[in-house]
Write a structure and sequence with these properties.
Length: about 230
């Protein structure tokens, strides 16, 4: 006994132009003819019979919208330093916040960046610096005494006379050449004086010179480090 299988109504359309399109009705799925394929958009992919019968095709889900990947988290910018914080950081690094230069010994100018809180590189330099400072201050005292006696001269002229006199100073006494050197620096017309007048001028200069040197010596003895 032979069983006969009925072919679909439009089975002759299974191969059309090498492409097969089926009715979008899931209960039909007949192969669409050329004319049906041309009306595919208007008929929403249904065959003519399904379209005529008012078959509806379920809406296909809309493709998911692409969402932009979240931007990688960025590190928060460091808080801006205050001027005080900047100064403290530079100081800790051995850099003077005001000049931008590394700290240096106050006497020999050697770098002391490793010890920014120190003023000198060591005890020896500190002692030498104190001595130099005391000598400078002692000289300033002596210059002040000379200028009090000779207000018309400059500080440079007063210092020049003192420096020249010191070269001839020994055992608390100054030689005649030292007195004359001081007088020459302090009295403008000393070089034009006759020897007798120069002698008189030297006699007036001597007590001033002694007073200035004594004041400087006493200040130095009281303030120089041992």
């Amino acid at each position: 006994m032979t069983t006969t299988v009925a072919a679909p109504v439009n089975a002759h359309l299974t191969l059309v132009d090498g492409a097969i399109s089926l009715c979008s009705n899931p209960d039909c799925h007949l192969v669409l003819s050329d004319s049906e394929k041309r009306r595919s958009v208007r008929q929403r992919g249904l065959c003519t019979e399904c379209h005529t019968n008012g078959v509806t095709v379920p809406e296909l889900p809309a493709p998911a919208e692409e969402t932009a990947a979240p931007e990688p988290a960025t590190e928060a910018a460091p808080a801006e330093e205050t001027p005080e914080e900047t100064a403290a950081r530079l100081h800790a690094l051995g850099i003077d916040p005001e000049s931008g230069e590394i700290y240096r010994c106050g006497y020999c100018d050697t770098s002391i960046a490793a010890t920014p809180d120190a003023e000198y590189c060591g005890p020896a330099c500190e002692k030498d610096a104190v001595r130099a400072k005391v000598r400078t201050e002692a000289l300033a005292i002596a210059v002040g005494i000379v200028r009090f006696a000779y207000p018309e001269i400059s500080g440079y002229e007063a210092e020049t006379g003192l420096t020249a006199a010191v070269k001839h100073w020994s055992n608390g006494r100054v030689a005649g050449r030292g007195i004359a050197a001081a007088a020459r620096a302090w009295i403008p017309d000393y070089a034009d004086m006759k020897p007798a007048h120069q002698g008189i001028a030297n006699g007036k200069v001597l007590p001033i010179l002694k007073a200035a040197m004594r004041a400087a010596r006493e200040y130095a003895q009281a303030n120089l480090p041992a």
